[in-house]
Design brief:
The complex is a heterodimer of chains A (286) and B (257). Chain A is built from 12 helices and no strands. Chain A is mainly α. The longest helix of chain A is centred in the C-terminal third of the chain and has 33 residues. Chain A starts with a helix and ends with a helix. Chain B has a domain of 174 residues: Rossmann fold (3-Layer(aba) Sandwich), CATH 3.40.50.300. In chain B, 37% of the residues lie in helices and 24% in strands. Chain B contains 9 helices and 10 strands. In chain B, strands 6-7-8-3-9-10 form a 6-stranded mixed β-sheet, sandwiched between helices. In chain B, strand 4 and strand 5 form a beta hairpin. Chain B starts with 6 loop residues before the first strand and ends with a helix. The chains are: A mainly alpha (286), B alpha/beta (257). Chains A and B meet through helix 7, helix 8 and helix 11 of A and helix 2 of B. Bound molecules: adenosine-5'-triphosphate and magnesium ion. Adenosine-5'-triphosphate (ATP) binds next to helix 1 of chain B. Chain A: This is Zinc transport system permease protein. Chain A: It is a multi-pass membrane protein. Chain A: It comes from Geomicrobium sediminis.
Chain lengths: 286, 257
């Protein structure tokens, strides 16, 4: 059952890509969640759709576009979107989350226009929306590997800084951290990770991969560092299950990944309930 | 006067406005090394605003600010400055970090990029936690502490980089009276033994004046700056600036009786 993944290139690609995405998406997600910015992932995945739709539209008119993967246009849009969100967040100060519906609706609006101009949905678009095991080509894999390496290195280098900034922006600024610059870098990374994950998880579900494992991790972690360990473990379990079952049962992997992430979350919540209940019992028995 | 100690904070003709009305106007203030200055003034008099200007968090429209003898925009040795803000414990209460991790943040500015916590740094964190008597809680999640305990942890974070200047904006709000007094004792000790320069904002003027060496009264600008003794014995202060002081003087009369 598993060796089939090593027989076929495309399956091996999907597997490697899945392992990397299941690692970096939840780890960046930790910062997103503690900054109360989980929805940024949603906004950016939708703006990625805008880029992809534009590419598919242009490919109808200019042959040259068919030579390239639409995901690159998606990536460009995601990065531009993240810069806008960053900017809007400073404009709206106390209402930072306003940036998210603004970018999200603008992105979907444009995407819908592009899609209808390009004569509606095709199978290609379907695989972008829900992910696909067969979709990871060797070029895609290379892109994902490069992004994963960049993310892991930067996470290691800027861990302290991003931790401090998410906890307390004002104090971080006083300690001399260059907050603006670090925020910008972080937004760009999120955009890249989202674009990289879309092949496997799909646009509609990529934000779930960045946030659900983190929500579960919160039920287990005893420190901020542990958040990353648990989020990565839960991300791996979800992604690998999604790819295996997705292939063997011919299901969209994005759906299976998210269902597994939800199951893990429910089990984590249940575990906490049980722990609390037994604490109460101990108190009563005394 | 004795030979002058060096000036750590120097504010000249500072004006700051959020909107069209100045909150601080032509404000002058200097803080000498080794002093323990209490800053008092009614709500909205601009105390927190002045502190944010000194810390470079907001840019004044006019005036000059210097820290440790260099102009503010040139100053970059921020590990010398510790700060506990007025709303310090209003962070995201569920933040999944331990007390230890929160205090470590106080060292991040000093460590800089590509450098990580070493054993020596970890010892410093534990030492700072001991100073505020919170070392037993090092592994606890910060969100599970009481407001007063969180406040102490944030004070430990301000102390851990061993600053020369410590700025505290109403740090004892939400701390019980006994702990507040212990906290003031601690500040006095840091001031006297280690020569830490302190700037403290508090509305609990009665208690504060027993500990500080100097008092400054603020309402848009500094209306009085002198020793704690001068402040306590000056009968005119009430007419100089508003309700709070009347209140204190009243209290003092009560005590004197
Ligand atoms: N972000 C802001 N935007 C506009 N005005 C502000 C802002 N912050 C403070 N102010 C105004 O500036 C004035 C001074 O505020 P500040 O917070 O410095 O007072 P304070 O002396 O610290 O008061 P408190 O004792 O209540 O802490 C107030 O009148 C307030 O209305
Ligand atoms: Mg204030």
């Amino acid at each position: 059952m598993i060796d089939v993944f090593f027989q076929y290139d495309f399956l091996r690609n999907a597997l490697i890509a899945g392992v990397l995405i299941g690692l970096i998406a939840p780890m960046l997600g930790v910062f997103l969640v503690v900054k109360r910015m989980s929805l940024v992932a949603d906004a950016l995945s939708h703006i990625t759709l805008t880029g992809i739709a534009l590419h598919l539209l242009l490919a109808n008119f200019f042959a040259i576009f068919s030579l390239y993967d639409p995901i690159y246009m998606g990536m460009v849009f995601a990065v531009i979107g993240s810069l806008f969100i960053n900017q809007l967040r400073t404009v709206y100060g106390h209402f930072k989350e306003l940036a998210i519906p603004i970018i999200l609706s603008a992105g979907v609006g444009l995407a819908v226009i592009f899609i209808s101009l390009a004569d509606g949905f095709n199978t290609d678009l379907y695989s972008y929306l829900f992910g696909s095991v067969a979709a990871v080509g060797s070029n895609d894999l290379m892109t994902i590997i490069i992004i994963a390496v960049i993310v892991l290195v930067l996470l290691f280098v800027f861990y302290k800084e991003w931790f401090f900034l998410s906890f307390d922006e004002e104090q971080a600024a006083i300690s001399g951290l260059k907050g603006k610059w670090l925020e910008l870098l972080f937004s760009i990374l999120v955009a890249l990770v989202i674009a990289a994950s879309i092949r496997i998880v799909g646009i509609l579900l990529v934000s779930a991969l960045m946030t659900l494992p983190v929500a579960s991790a919160m039920q287990w972690a005893k420190s901020f560092k542990q958040m990353f360990v648990y989020a990565a473990i839960f991300g791996q379990i979800s992604v690998l299950s999604g790819i295996f079952l997705g292939f063997h049962l011919d299901l969209a992997p994005g759906g299976v990944i998210v269902v597994f992430a939800v199951i893990i979350l429910l089990l984590s919540l249940l575990k906490n309930k049980i722990v609390k209940a037994s604490l109460n019992r101990n108190v009563q028995n005394r | 006067m004795m030979a002058k100690a060096s000036t750590i904070v120097e504010v000249n003709n500072l004006t700051y406005q959020y909107t069209d009305r100045p909150v601080l106007q032509n404000l002058n203030l200097s803080i000498e090394e080794g002093s323990f200055l209490g800053l008092v003034g009614p709500n909205g008099s601009g105390k927190s605003t002045l502190i944010k200007c000194i810390l470079g968090l907001i840019k004044p429209q006019a005036g000059k600010l210097s820290l440790f003898g260099s102009e503010l925009h040139r100053f970059d040795d921020w590990s010398k400055v510790g700060y506990v803000s007025q709303r310090a414990n209003r962070f995201n209460a569920g933040f999944p970090a331990t007390v230890f991790e929160v205090v470590s943040m106080g060292l991040f500015g000093q460590l800089g990029l590509f450098r990580f916590m070493k054993r020596n740094d970890r010892n410093k964190v534990m030492q700072a936690l001991k100073t505020v008597e919170m070392d037993a809680y090092a592994k606890q999640p910060i969100g599970k502490l009481s407001g007063g305990q969180q406040q102490r942890v944030l004070i430990a974070r301000a102390l851990v980089s061993e600053p020369t200047l410590l700025i505290l904006d109403e740090p004892t709000v939400g701390i019980d009276a006994t702990s507040a007094r212990r906290f003031y004792d601690l500040l006095r000790k840091l001031n006297q033994d280690q020569g830490l320069t302190l700037l403290l904002v508090s509305h609990d003027v009665g208690t504060m004046t027993k500990y500080v060496t100097n008092v400054a009264c603020l309402n848009k600008s500094i209306h009085f700056h002198g020793t704690a003794h001068e402040f306590e014995t000056n009968p005119n202060l009430s007419s100089l600036y508003g309700y709070d002081v009347q209140h204190i003087i009243h209290e003092h009369e009560e005590i004197a009786k």
